[in-house]
Specification:
Layout (H helix, E strand, L loop, with lengths): L6 H4 L4 H16 L6 E2 L11 H14 L15 H12 L11 E4 L2 H7 L10 E5 L3 H10 L5 E2 L2 E2 L2 E5 L17 E5 L11 H14 L2 E5 L25 E6 L1 H4 L7 E4 L5 E3 L5 E3 L1 H11 L5 H9 L3 H27 L4 E3 L5 E5 L6 H12 L1 E2 L1 E2 L10 E5 L4 H13 L1
Helix pairs in contact: 3-10, 4-10, 5-6, 11-13
Bound molecules: pyridoxal-5'-phosphate.
Amino acid sequence: MIQINEYFQKLSQNYLFSEIAKKLKQYKAEHPEAEIISLGIGDVTRPLAPAVVQAMHKAVDEMADASTMRGYAPECGYSFLIDTIIKNDFNARGIQLDADEVFVSDGAKSDTGNIGDILSTKNVVAITDPVYPVYLDTNIMAGRCEMFENGEWSNIKYLPAVPENDFVPALPAKKVDLIYLCYPNNPTGTTLTKSQLKQWVDYAIENKALILFDAAYEAFITDADVPHSIYEIEGAKNVAIEFRSFSKTAGFTGVRCGYTIVPKQLKAYDKNGEAFPLNPLWNRRQSTKFNGTAYIVQRGAEAIYSPEGKRQIRETIDYYMENVRIIKEGLDELRYTTYGGVNAPYIWVKTPSGITSWEFFDKLLNECQIVCTPGVGFGASGEGFVRMTAFGTKENTIQAIKRMTRN
Ligand code: PLP
């Protein structure tokens, strides 16, 4: 008899985006003339940079010729891309890495989801609340969460990130083994300064814990005091894995490429307390279950780091950051309380008092034909907030604020 992985049955339905789609469909059916503007979109809308397109075209031509075509890519990435990543994203910030500490992949969702393969199911896991849902759901699938009581999973420590703590979660009162940190943060758009992140690195060193640092939005950082990489913090190579993505940096959501850093000095322990490096485990995991990112895609990613590529992706990031500014300043004028939106493409908006996330979603849809994302969909501490994003067009963003001003 075939038995299923029963942990999948423990997953709660992710109602968030399906519920949004349902409400939107109903509204459109009732108001076919309505021109709806989405400030809820978590996907990019600007085209790929010309330098990337050119590099990918060239790579396609190489694939069309028997003398230059490439078959399976190296599982952990071509050295042309790895060397370029190290030079630009790390050496430029004073961080030294070896080529075999960089693992090119098809994106940060896969890597943040798969990393649990090399870690015991007995680990106690800390996640911030609200949170990017992948961290929690993949731990449930893996069997790290046996019981659900009072709205919380056993083995998961929830770290509220709320205005009362300036969205800087307190260190866990009880010892944890794995800590997911995402900065700049999705969904709140907030960040940690170097000294705030250092406290987490120090905690991890003291408690033999591992930080899983998701830096998918690193390219949006504007403040000098916000670290782009966790390895800017002393000692982090001993306790942290870092995930990066080209999705929002360079519009690669549909192209698929990212990378993960697993330093060779980073160690975890077996049940007898003996230390083992994690780098060979992740190498083995990737080599066994992943057959490499497409050559064409890796050439496209390499082109992001060329002088034209850098300039072009910066223009696109600036375009989105201008949208963020428009939303934030518009909402501030309307006397909403907003967070984030300075070093991230996300703004976390406090709903007017007494209104829940979903009620505010309905209000914006019905009164302004604007779609946002209810914060409670990211965790209990997201109640009373909505997330607005900067990935739409500038025209629509301006129009959205005008509509909110009129109402
Ligand atoms: N990590 C965070 C925090 C995200 O918000 C997202 C995408 O929304 C991802 C990872 C996924 O990135 P990728 O497209 O590289 O899989």
